[in-house]
Amino acid sequence: MTGVQNIESVRAIFSPSNQVTLKEVTDSFFPELEQAFPGFANHMLISQHAFDEAWPTWELHPRGDELVLLLSGDTDLVLSNPDGSETVLRVSGQGDYVVVPKGVWHTARPHAPTSLLFMTPGEGTLNALTPGGDPV
């Protein structure tokens, strides 16, 4: 694929040598990623996600910080602190972004339909219903 792409339908994957692979979004996108890039070791996924309801899960990226940029909408990014409390960061201005630190559980709770751009070190990503809970 060359030329202009749209982040809603084609994701970009940066390799450890900063080469970009473009991957069309399909129903089997994530299993295909795992097959194409075993373990996603040292790769960075550039993706977009639109939503209008709270995320049903929390996630954690153990191999690096994640940059989350607001394309449109209004949402709270919720970070779980080691003591069990939450830090709530309101992201409401187009172009605002948050850096989610490596190893921090996080989720989102929108106030309006929202679209975010993610720059994610994908290796070892965990998802759970609660911070630190059993993986889903």
Can you offer a commentary on this structure?
The structure is a single chain. The protein is mainly beta and 136 residues long. The chain has one domain (10-128): Jelly Rolls, CATH 2.60.120.10. Helix content is 6%, strand content 48%. It has 1 helix and 9 strands; from the N terminus they run E-E-H-E-E-E-E-E-E-E. A hairpin with a 5-residue loop joins strand 5 and strand 6 (86-91). The mean pLDDT is 95.
The CATH superfamily label reads Jelly Rolls
Q: Helix proportion of residues, in percent?
A: under 10%
Counting H and I runs of at least 4 residues, what is the number of helices?
1
Mean pLDDT: 95
- Under CATH, the topology is which? Jelly Rolls
Helix and strand topology:
Layout: E1 10-14, E2 20-24, H1 29-36, E3 44-51, E4 58-60, E5 66-80, E6 86-91, E7 97-100, E8 106-121, E9 126-128
Antiparallel strand pairs: 1-2, 1-3, 3-8, 4-9, 5-6, 5-7, 5-8
In short:
By secondary structure, the chain is mostly beta strands. It has one helix at 29-36; strands at 10-14, 20-24, 44-51, 58-60, 66-80, 86-91, 97-100, 106-121, 126-128.
What key phrases describe this protein's structure?
Jelly Rolls, seven-stranded antiparallel β-sheet, 136 residues, globular, 6% helix, mainly beta
